[in-house]
Write a structure and sequence with these properties.
Length: about 325
C-alpha cells in the first residue's frame, strides 16, 4: 500500500514524534504538488492522531482506512470548499466526538476554495475546540490565505524516491521506467502515467520529432502522428522538453547524468546532430505550441505548425 511509502517519510516520522510527545499542533497544512499524495498523508495523520502505534487492527485504524470513521470528517463535499462547507465545519467542531477521543477534519485542496470560504474556516482554526484537529491540504500555497497559513503547522511533502514508488508500478519495464522518469517523484502522477498504454509510443514520437523529422516531404506524416496523440499533447511536449534538456546536458558534458539514462545512445545522437542554438530554439517552439493550443487554435493547425517550426529551426541552424 501507498501508506507504507508515506510512513517511512521524514515528515511523517517527525509528526508521529510530536503526537507521541503530546505536542502535536491542532492545525496542519500539508503542501504537495501532488494532491493525491497530500490526501493520502492527511488520512495517515488522522490515523496517527487516533492510534499513535498505527496498529492497523483497532476500530479506529480500520475505520479511518475505509474512510468511515464517524469522528473523521472529509471536506469539501463537492469539487471545492464552499462557504456552506466551512459553516458545517465550524458547527460540527462544537459537537463532541462519538467514537474516539478526538475529532478530525480533513480539508483537501484549500487553494481551490474562495476567499470567503477560507475566511469562514479561519474562525475554527483561530479558536480550536479541545481535541479538535484540522488537517488541510494544498497544491498551491500562494492561493491559501496568509491568515490560514499562519494558523497552521506547514509541512511540505518531499517527492518519493524511485525505489519507494517502483513496487506499485505495473506493465513492462519500459512503461514502468518512463512513468517513473516523467512522474518525478509525484506518486499520483507516476501511477497515472503508468496506466497509459500509449506512453512508449509518445516517447518514441518525441524522440522521432527531434532525431528523424528533417524533411518537409514527411511533414504530413509527423503531423498525423501528433494528431493521433491529441489527448496527450501536453505530455508529448513535456517529453520533448526533457529530451532537449538531456541533449543540451550531453552537449556540454558527454558524461553528464540525464533524465532518460536508458536512452542515452539515442539522446547522444540528437546531441551530435543539433547545435546548442538549435536545441534552445526548439524549446521556444514547444512553448509556442502550448500557447497556441490555449488560445483555441484548432488542433490540426497546432500540430502542423509544430512540425513546420521544428523543420524550420533545424534547417536554419544547420
Ligand atoms: Zn490502531
Amino acid at each position: 500500500m501507498l501508506d507504507e511509502v508515506f510512513k517511512k517519510s521524514l515528515q511523517f516520522e517527525n509528526f508521529l514524534k510530536t503526537v507521541k510527545n503530546g505536542k502535536a499542533s491542532h492545525s496542519f497544512l500539508l503542501i504537495s504538488k501532488d494532491a493525491f499524495s497530500a490526501q493520502t498523508m492527511a488520512n495517515l495523520f488522522a490515523e496517527a492522531l487516533l492510534c499513535p502505534s498505527l496498529c492497523g487492527e483497532c476500530e479506529n485504524c480500520k475505520k479511518i482506512k475505509s474512510k468511515t470513521h464517524p469522528d473523521v470528517k472529509y471536506f469539501p463535499e463537492g469539487a471545492k470548499l464552499l462557504v456552506e462547507d466551512s459553516k458545517k465545519i465550524v458547527d460540527e467542531s462544537f459537537v463532541k466526538p462519538i467514537f474516539a477521543d478526538k475529532k478530525i477534519f480533513i480539508i483537501c485542496n484549500v487553494d481551490l476554495s474562495t476567499e470567503e470560504a477560507q475566511n469562514k474556516l479561519l474562525k475554527s482554526l483561530e479558536e480550536p475546540q479541545k481535541n479538535v484537529y484540522y488537517i488541510l491540504t494544498t497544491s498551491n500555497l500562494d492561493k491559501v490565505l496568509p491568515t490560514i497559513r499562519s494558523r497552521c503547522d506547514k509541512i511540505t511533502l518531499a517527492p518519493a524516491s524511485e525505489e519507494q514508488i517502483q513496487p506499485y508500478l505495473s506493465g513492462d519495464e519500459q512503461k514502468k521506467y518512463l512513468a517513473l522518469k516523467l512522474g518525478q517523484g509525484y506518486v499520483a502522477k507516476t501511477l497515472e502515467l503508468n496506466k497509459k498504454s500509449n506512453l512508449p509510443a509518445l516517447f518514441e514520437l518525441g524522440l522521432g520529432l527531434l532525431r528523424d523529422c528533417s524533411s518537409s516531404k514527411d511533414a504530413v506524416v509527423w503531423s498525423r502522428k501528433i494528431i493521433d496523440q491529441k489527448a496527450d499533447f501536453n505530455l508529448l511536449i513535456e517529453i520533448i522538453s526533457l529530451l532537449i534538456e538531456d541533449a543540451l546536458m550531453l552537449k556540454i558534458d558527454k558524461n553528464a547524468a540525464v533524465n532518460f539514462e536508458n536512452f542515452r545512445a539515442q539522446i547522444l545522437q540528437i546531441a551530435q546532430m543539433l547545435s546548442i542554438k538549435c536545441l534552445s530554439q526548439l524549446q521556444g517552439v514547444l512553448g509556442r505550441a502550448v500557447r497556441d493550443l490555449s488560445y483555441n487554435v484548432s488542433f490540426p493547425l497546432v500540430a502542423d505548425n509544430l512540425v513546420m517550426k521544428i523543420l524550420e529551426v533545424k534547417y536554419l541552424c544547420k
